[in-house]
Specification:
Largest sheet: 5 strands, mixed
Distance between the termini: 19 Å
Pfam families: STAS_2
Radius of gyration: 12 Å
InterPro entries: MlaB-like_STAS, STAS_dom, STAS_dom_sf
Organism: Dyella agri
Number of strands: 7
Shape: globular
Protein name: STAS domain-containing protein
Helix content: 25-40%
Length: 99
């Protein structure tokens, strides 16, 4: 996982690797939730992700709560068709902006 924070925009971008599952839970938590005050916006880049499990969905929900729930600005980008379908079936297209 590659983490980039743009201090000017206060935007945190996470470029995830091949797997978005429980194996990255600690790193995801530390990058997104461990710093205390939430960033103004988040970009979750799934371009390299080949698969994700239910813990990935849980991590996204925790991030959403941390970032302000309905006021959160979280964009999920570069998801494959399969991942987009999974996110839609789970109703995440109503909670996050999917690009």
């Amino acid at each position: 996982m590659i983490v980039h924070h743009d201090p000017e925009l206060d935007c945190l971008t996470l470029q995830l690797g091949e797997r978005f599952d429980f194996s990255i839970h600690r790193d995801f938590h530390d990058a997104c939730l461990g710093g205390g005050k939430p960033a103004r916006s988040y970009v979750i880049d799934l371009g390299e992700v080949a698969g994700m499990d239910s813990s990935a969905l849980g991590m996204l929900l925790l991030l959403r709560e941390h970032a302000g729930a309905d006021r959160a600005d979280i964009r999920i980008v570069n998801a494959s068709g399969e991942l987009r379908s999974t996110l839609r079936v789970a109703g995440f297209d109503k909670l996050f902006v999917l690009h």
